């Protein structure tokens, strides 16, 4: 880089800062990617994928971590971009094939990561100002982002290793050709120091994480000023989809309501009073949603395996649940065998000692351990064992 340009660049805009911020940013993106894969695979399981019913808090942890790590990445990304911005336009713009590969990977990397972080953040607020389907698009772009990260690391690894091995105060070779001299206290060195910039970046990442962590970690709610959900909602528990939005109010309140259960070729219908007369079981299970929020709840109702046993012999297959809701992507869900037989899986009738409100799934809903809230089907109309 020409000396006239280098002299105008703040010493904080350096490979030393870019490498250190990039290291933490990369870890945040990796955690976000892995926890996002888990969430997607639970909802759309590929062949051979297994997700346990226990521990009951595992999905609450992984999805809370997914959103927190994404917000931390949002806080670090501008610092990373600022530290390398002048060098993105250094001559030559293209150069040899390796240089072109580096520039191309950076362009794809920045585009994919900005897209992922921006759309993910808007998803936590359930605001979708676009026409594409968020879930599949976000999932596909995650692979583009992580692939670009891998290419970028492969190309830049020698530079990154060299930058991490040098003290922060050492002047970089590309600035004046020296190897080990300290940064001079000259007009070119005015402005924020590298150490202070890293401190601000780290502090911003911590503050950003805490600002949303309370929606998954109850004792942090008082500091989570940016959390989309903080515990408010009907019966003190948040909801994503209300009964009015689902269009189920009339059907749910119908005195002739029946829950149809099919097991082993046999079918039986249950009214709400019949369900209430059956043995009631309680379970402390979190309701945890893909937006990162969760809440601890005490549920009570009929244990699923007892309800299936009252109809026929359960043969060990997955079980499909259908809602009174007539539309929507999640009016049905399929529960795998480990969750079907778990003691805590309920057809829930009550929440924290109260009858379910309409918004929480009255007259009854599925609640199973270690599952996303979007798969905890509300306003149940049918339960069917699959062959």
Automatic annotation (TrEMBL):
Segments passing through the bilayer: 21-43, 63-85, 106-128, 140-159, 197-220
Protein name: Molybdopterin-binding protein
Keywords, ordered alphabetically: Membrane, Transmembrane, Transmembrane helix
Organism: Nocardia terpenica
Sequence segments annotated as region (Disordered): 170-190
Gene3D superfamilies (alphabetical): Oxidoreductase, molybdopterin-binding domain (3.90.420.10)
Basic and acidic residues bias locations: 170-185
The organism's place on the tree of life at top rank: Bacteria
MF (Gene Ontology): oxidoreductase activity
Domain Oxidoreductase molybdopterin-binding: 256-384
InterPro entries, sorted: Mopterin_OxRdtase_euk, OxRdtase_Mopterin-bd_dom, OxRdtase_Mopterin-bd_sf
A Pfam family annotated for this UniProt entry: Oxidored_molyb
């Amino acid at each position: 880089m020409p000396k006239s340009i280098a002299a105008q660049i703040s010493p904080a805009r350096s490979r030393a800062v870019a490498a250190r911020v990039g290291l933490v940013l990369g870890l945040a993106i990796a955690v976000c990617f892995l926890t996002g894969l888990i969430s997607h695979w639970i909802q759309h399981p590929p062949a051979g994928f297994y997700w346990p019913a226990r521990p009951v808090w595992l999905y609450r942890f992984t999805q809370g971590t997914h959103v927190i790590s994404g917000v931390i990445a949002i806080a670090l990304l501008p610092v990373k971009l600022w530290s390398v911005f002048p060098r993105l336009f250094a001559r030559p713009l293209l150069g040899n094939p390796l240089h072109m590969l580096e520039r191309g990977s950076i362009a794809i990397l920045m585009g994919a990561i900005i897209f992922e972080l921006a759309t993910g953040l808007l998803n936590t607020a359930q605001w979708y100002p676009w026409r594409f389907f968020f879930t599949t698009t976000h999932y596909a772009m995650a692979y583009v982002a992580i692939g670009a990260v891998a290419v970028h690391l492969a190309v830049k690894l020698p530079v990154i290793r060299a930058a991490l091995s040098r003290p922060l105060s050492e002047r970089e070779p590309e600035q004046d050709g020296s190897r080990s001299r300290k940064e001079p206290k000259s007009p070119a060195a005015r402005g924020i120091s590298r150490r202070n910039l890293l401190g601000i970046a780290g502090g911003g990442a911590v503050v950003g994480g805490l600002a949303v962590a309370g929606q998954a970690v109850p004792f942090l709610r008082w500091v989570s000023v940016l959390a989309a959900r903080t515990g408010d909602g009907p019966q003190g528990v948040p909801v994503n989809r209300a009964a009015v939005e689902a269009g189920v109010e009339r059907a749910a309140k119908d005195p002739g309501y029946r829950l149809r259960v099919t097991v082993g070729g046999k079918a039986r219908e249950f009214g709400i009073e019949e369900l209430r007369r059956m043995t009631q079981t309680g379970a402390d299970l979190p309701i945890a949603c893909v937006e990162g929020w969760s809440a601890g709840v005490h549920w009570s109702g009929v244990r699923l395996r007892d309800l299936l046993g009252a109809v026929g012999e359960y043969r060990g297959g997955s079980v499909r649940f259908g809602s009174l809701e007539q539309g929507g992507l999640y009016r049905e869900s399929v529960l795998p065998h480990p969750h079907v037989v778990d003691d805590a899986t309920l057809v829930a009738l009550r929440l924290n000692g109260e009858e379910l409100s309409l918004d929480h799934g009255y007259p009854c809903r599925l609640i199973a351990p270690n599952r996303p809230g979007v798969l905890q089907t509300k306003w149940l109309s049918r339960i069917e064992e699959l062959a």
